[in-house]
Amino acid sequence: MAETKVKATPSASNSAKKSSNKKTTPKADGATDTVKQPDPVLPPTHDQQPEENAPRATSPAEPQFPKETYLTWYEQMQLMRKFEEKAGQLYGQQKIKGFCHLYIGQEACVAGAVSALQKGDKWITAYRDHAHPLALGTSPNAIMAELYAKATGCSKGKGGSMHMFDKEVNFVGGHGIVGGQVPMGAGLAFAEKYNKTGNLCICYMGDGAVRQGALHEAFNMAMLWKLPVIFVVENNGYAMGTSVQRTSNVTELYHIGRGYDMPSEPVNGMNVEDIHDAVARAAERARAGEGPTFLEFKTYRYKGHSMSDPAKYRTKEELEDYRSRDAIESVRHTILTHNMATEEELTAIDEKIKAQVQESVEFAENSPFPTADELYKDVYVQQDYPYIRD
Ligand SMILES: Cc1ncc(C[n+]2csc(CCOP(=O)(O)OP(=O)(O)O)c2C)c(N)n1
Ligand SMILES: [Mg+2]
User: What is the per-residue burial (b if ≥16 Cβ within 10 Å, else e) of 312-337?
Assistant: First the structure.
């Protein structure tokens, strides 16, 4: 099968990678491609029986990245997982209220992208949004306090689980309207291009969002203006309890980019290395002025849609099958197999994270709620809005 070599990128993306051991990787599947690209090894689609599945995602025979990158991935993904396990417990105790959507199982989708992008890049996603700011460097204290609706939260306690926001790390939310962030992602990329910053925007969405009309308008404009944006669909198989197969004629969601000649490709969302590579290729294209890319991360959430979902619409076998490909376990296995760290050193990282999460709970517990006058702050009001008549 034909493969296309990737060029070395000057960005942070490939500095995370071992210079001596670059593998050749397929280019995105766009109409401009002349070569038929091979399909990467992917987790099963959600209508496949476990026995039909592709080979299990295992640690590579030879690690492609330096030790520091694997250790960073391990620490970031463990922080996401442990933080959210705690958030789930606290929700059960009614310390956290309202909606709460956990990212457990999908951690590689963020960790692999963080290592492939640079500091000034903008990030936007839907309401399953705790992991993104955690990996970008927002303090767990500020995220936990936001879950508690406390004034010290990253959205001043006024956003809650679905509306995390942190300008410091370029995390632009946290959006509750399915697909609402897609045109905003294009707009953020437009600003970067207009201001000639050299930065890009990575815009995440769920599989439910690709059916929204606004996505199609945004894709068209992003291609027309060659905006520096990476659109990512995290296809975890379900929009609430409804599977992709029940709502879409096109089940390989990355094909949707083809209608706009947008370079598009499927990625094994349970494999942090594959995600890094795909995002690095897309970033290189965006920074070279070649415009957007559409990536479909094939992933899975281990928990229900939100805290109130017992997830009865899927089988135990399906869940177990994805758990057996767990990205954190894979990275842990790579680290240990290749002597990048000892069991004791990984345990020390786990202990550090446990303490960080515990500290965030104490911080949130001891923080005040916002005062009543906060109600009228941070509200967008346009005084001369033309259509209001007295
Ligand atoms: C425009 C709009 N319609 C419906 C909803 C209700 N709703 C909330 S989450 C959701 C499912 C979205 O699933 P998906 O995009 O696959 O994301 P996931 O939850 O799997 O991360 C729906 C329909 C909404 N928030 N916004
Ligand atoms: Mg989904």
Answer: eebeeebbebbeebbbbebbbebbee
